[in-house]
């Protein structure tokens, strides 16, 4: 009888130990989006003034900046992932939606990588989103439909030293606009933030260096590439290439 009682006690102890080891906590995560021009902070208070100079040497302003963030993924070292399927239209122009808290909780612990998608991946880009329609975020059907990834607009001083408008709009790269457009390559960008350990209510502070859109590897001359860039697949691919180093993780607060 004593042996049976001792065995039951050992099994109970092991069971409780396993339960404690398997315990996981759920927490919120928040993503804050901040903006700079090669290290100098940028807000909408800096808009509508020719105060920026891109890598080519164009003196320019920003009048509107909006971009889409979607598909946030938390990846474990064992390959398991938590996918937060929501999206957020960051509107720097109106100083709105600069902070995004997905409705899905994540588990605390170590993650080998955290990523998000700039724009929509191709599958998500075929869906219909009422709020994005209201925000005039659509791409015309003749250009493949779906939605913008980014709208960056302003003015620059051209070679004649006159102010001229530019529309740096990122979408899915498209060829042969019309009834049967084709897509030469994907131009949404998966941004990898690297590993982190989440303990409680983590806030990720993300930086966008706006200057990078005009810098690397393609030095952007606004005299040559300023408008009608959406049907220009070569320009879209250049934007995709320049966008690889635009975002970075500044810090994680928790």
Automatic annotation (TrEMBL):
Residues 1-19 form the signal peptide. Keywords: Signal. It comes from the Bacteria. InterPro entries: MbnP-like_dom. Residues 28-226 form the Copper-binding protein MbnP-like domain. PROSITE patterns: PROKAR_LIPOPROTEIN. The keyword Signal applies. This is Copper-binding protein MbnP-like domain-containing protein. It comes from Algibacter pectinivorans.
């Amino acid at each position: 009888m004593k042996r049976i009682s001792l065995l039951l006690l050992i099994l109970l102890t092991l069971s409780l130990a396993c339960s404690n080891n398997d315990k996981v906590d759920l927490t919120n995560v928040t993503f804050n989006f901040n903006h700079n021009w090669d290290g100098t902070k940028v807000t909408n208070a800096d808009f509508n003034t020719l105060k920026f100079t891109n890598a080519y040497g164009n003196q320019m302003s920003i009048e509107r900046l909006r971009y889409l963030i979607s598909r946030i993924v938390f990846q474990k070292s064992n390959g398991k992932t938590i996918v937060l399927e929501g999206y957020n239209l960051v509107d720097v122009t109106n100083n709105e939606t600069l902070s995004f808290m997905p409705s899905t909780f994540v588990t605390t612990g170590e993650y080998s990588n955290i990523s998000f998608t700039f724009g929509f991946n191709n599958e998500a880009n075929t869906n219909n989103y009422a709020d994005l329609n209201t925000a005039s975020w659509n791409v015309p059907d003749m250009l493949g439909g779906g939605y913008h990834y980014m709208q960056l607009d302003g003015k620059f001083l051209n070679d004649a030293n006159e102010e001229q408008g530019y529309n740096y709009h990122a979408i899915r790269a498209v060829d042969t606009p019309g009834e049967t457009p084709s897509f030469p390559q994907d131009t949404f960008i998966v941004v990898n933030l690297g590993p982190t350990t989440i303990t409680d209510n983590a806030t990720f502070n993300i930086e966008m260096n706006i200057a990078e859109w005009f810098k690397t590897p393609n030095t952007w001359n606004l005299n040559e590439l300023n408008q009608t860039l959406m049907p220009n697949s070569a320009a879209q691919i250049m934007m995709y290439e320049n966008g690889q180093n635009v975002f970075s993780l500044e810090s994680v607060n928790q």
